[in-house]
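Figure caption, in words: inputs first, then the predicted bound structure.
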Amino acid sequence: MEKVKIAILGFGNVGTGVWKILQENKKEIMKRSNYDIEVAKILVNDINKKRDFELPAGILTDNIDDIINDDNIKIVVELIGGRDQAKEYMIRAMKAKKHIVTANKLVIANWSEELFRIAEDENVLFYYEASVAGGIPIIREINESLTANRIEGIIGIINGTTNYILSKMTIEGISFEEALKEAQDKGFAEADPTSDVDAFDAVYKLAIMSSLAFGTKVDHDCIYREGIRNISDVDIEYAKQFGYTIKLLAIAKEENNKLELRVHPTLIPSTHPMANVNDAFNAILIKGNAVGELMLYGQGAGDLPTGSAVVGDIISILRNNVKPSELKELNDKVDFKEVKKSEDNESEFYIRLNVKDRAGVLGDTAAIFGSNNVSITSLTQDVVHKEYVLLAFITHKSAEKNIRNSIKQIKELANVNEVESIIRIESFK
Ligand code: NDP
Ligand code: HSE
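Bound structure (NDP present):
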């Protein structure tokens, strides 16, 4: 069988996962790709670092030129993460006529146009399945299986780290910090976990998915973003009382050629299958006008699940079942679609206030909601301290600008200590 040499840039969580799969499933991979894959070089930062693997002598390098200048290396798998260096290495590799596989959503969300154009000019293939939702084959699903549909909406749990944190806080009652530390130890989190916790990672992934699904170029800066830092055990408990579970959702909807794009913590009905997507699992619900609703579920992070998507891409390149020109078509045939301003979106809301235990405070608050056309579905009031009371409201579907106006006026009430939480609700209707 013909041999093919590849290089892996990065030997961290995902890089080692790819290495393990290539060793353990060698026979199947040879049969499916028709090639005997040899990892010729692995680029790392520190070649003297102790590794958990027996690696062939001379395979590790800290010099990218050893890879770029080796004409026998046909595929470069970028798994170093980060932005500028990863982008530069991929461009240099393509210019040296090497195909690319990457898991780097940050780079794809920012520079896909430039990278795809270079791939086309250099006549090489560029695959990035692992950049969204780890082991779930969502890019192929959108690009191939669902092409008969007009996609109307995508709702997803697409960040494993935040889902791990929220589900551990909800089910086991552990603290945010403890849960984040566990997610980092398990290799789910980004090198800088701010990217996960403040929802940048999910925004990049939503930008990639929605560009493909809606046939437009989605700039990630146009996506409303809110992370999970402010979610407290108090809100998790109230959500449970109201019949909801808190998840970080990525939402993309198209209506009248306008896109609604947002990533934020969300209360979802505890009876919905998404409420039971726990740990680092991801789930993506797609609504197509022909297929109806379709839900994909699987591990969204981790060495082997992500490695599964990466190795799948390597095999696709070897089978060469997508021509570079098809990638260009995806890139070129884009319509311009306007992204709605977040204040024009509509949702139900959960709002929690900390107020003084005084007569009239509930009436004053309710009057402000009413005067802004915000209607209340449920309300609960708990005296947690002799000095203050917690008021938690669930609203009917309301325009976001009306909620913002209400909150502005409520904050001015003398008996309101603080507006402690405002979380959107998704009812999947
Ligand atoms: P890690 O931090 O675990 O590993 C990074 C690896 O790259 C290390 O081996 C490091 O070397 C090497 N490296 C980093 N910078 C350089 C550089 N400038 N030059 C040479 N080598 C470098 O990252 P992950 O494996 O977790 O993530 C890799 C990519 O995959 C990222 O883009 C991430 O967003 C993406 N991803 C990660 C998932 C996950 O579950 N972790 C899931 C899906 C995508 P050394 O070992 O010497 O330190
Ligand atoms: N840090 C990412 C996550 C890795 O937790 O989902 C997978 O993209």
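Residues 125 and 396 are 48 Å apart (CA to CA).
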